[in-house]
Design goal:
Largest sheet of chain A: 7 strands, mixed
Largest interface: A-B, 39 and 39 residues
Oligomer: homodimer
Radius of gyration of chain A: 20 Å
Structural class of chain A: alpha+beta
Helix content of chain A: 25-40%
Chain lengths: 225, 225
DNA sequence: ATTGAAAGTGTATTTGCAACACTTTTCAAA
DNA sequence: TTTGAAAAGTGTTGCAAATACACTTTCAAT
């Protein structure tokens, strides 16, 4: 076995997670950001974060932190990067791992969010954030965009059932560019894991739009990424 | 400012880096692995790793660890992932960040490598590694392969000047599949940042093969990834 | 009955990728 | 000096995927 001294001669550090929480509403991507009413950096904007605790996996810490703010568990979350510059947190040395999370913006717990003094902010209006959180957001956005081109992660931002127009608007928001409606629908039609539910959404048009859903079983059968 | 107590109520952890060191020789990718003659897990195979020290950036720790083993600095290195499961190191809790490094296999310091009881092992012959290092290798390989399809990172595995046959063999090793010679050369011809040096390599053929080099300035001008 | 607003639908063109085999060069050996 | 071996180098065709592009349908409200 490893002698305890093998570890003891090395320093220990605080380990944190910071979460880039994406939502989608009215054709725009938003982030859930804190206007900090607590130290450090009180009064400034930041990501939701927290420290890793004893006996807690790093991934679990990220899930806990997101759940503390939104009340939601079982979100789609991915690790983005770990930031380990000595001076990145001016208070003490902290190694922080960034995760992004995708939230169906209809579902989060408004009371919790209010209690944390958190707000959904549309991407183009994101304020300057503390520490290296600006960089974290940029990295998370790039990573999430890449993943969205490879697999349909974006669906986690929509309700269970969604119209093709919603889906297209979402992808336009993620990729930041307009998409041709007919080409988009052709591509979706090829994906048998996006299936019509038979339900109709009449809230946005008189004609009504077919509602679709993501079939995870069919998807997992087809793809490995 | 942040009260010190803000940090003090949270635990600290050892932070480590583990490095997946890729080399390329005779048409095959290899990893530089340690046959551990020290605790913990003496006698088993592992990646080269080390602990992050006080006052040392995470990236710098990874660079130091690779330099300790190979004598090389200024390598192409990228962070892969941070592994934070509670029980991943059976000795004590350690959060470890994996980095991959690309080494021109002609240049490393053989004495250092011997002193560490390290060996180049061809990819298909990689033994089982300690802890979660198998997973780190799998993740690093996938990430490096992806990056290689997007930008010419592989060039870091070759000498300054290389022939197109060498480059093709390298990409076949990275992607794990044969590539058509004419299609490959067509694609390379479009990349003006891979330029002929005018030198000829006669070591492998009577006819001689044109030597090329990577022009970083032209590349940085063309691409942003 | 008309209008407005969103849903839904097909074709032609372009472009990038994949398949495919022979010629050239040079040196060394016969 | 001829011949053979071994690697370098070179174009065309076909196919599939992506793109560009505009009108019709539906239905509720007026």
């Amino acid at each position: 076995m490893a002698p305890k001294a093998y570890y003891d001669i090395h320093p220990k550090f605080h380990a944190a997670v910071d979460c880039i929480i994406f939502g989608f509403e009215e054709g725009e991507l938003s982030l859930l950001l804190l206007q900090r009413d607590f130290e450090p950096a009180k009064g400034q904007w930041s990501l939701m974060g927290g420290f890793v605790e004893d006996g807690e996996d790093l991934d679990d810490a990220a899930r806990r932190v997101v759940a503390e703010l939104t009340g939601l568990s079982d979100l789609y979350m991915r690790q983005v990067h770990t930031y380990g510059e000595v001076e990145r947190d001016p208070g003490e040395r902290v190694l922080s791992t960034a995760y992004y999370a995708l939230v169906n913006i209809k579902k989060y717990d408004r009371e919790l969010v209010r209690a944390h003094n958190a707000f959904w902010v549309r991407l183009p209006e994101i304020p300057h954030l503390i520490f290296d959180h600006d960089r974290m957001v940029a990295d998370a956005l790039r990573f999430m965009r890449y993943q969205a081109t490879v697999k349909p992660v974006g669906i986690n931002l929509l309700p269970e059932e969604f119209t093709l127009t919603q889906l297209q608007t979402l992808y336009e928001a993620i990729l930041g560019e307009p998409i041709d409606k007919r080409n988009f629908r052709k591509r979706i039609a090829q994906m048998d894991y996006i299936e019509k539910t038979g339900h109709i959404d009449k809230t946005l048009s008189r004609k009504g739009a077919a509602l679709y859903r993501f079939n995870r079983e069919k998807f997992d059968g087809n793809f490995k990424i």
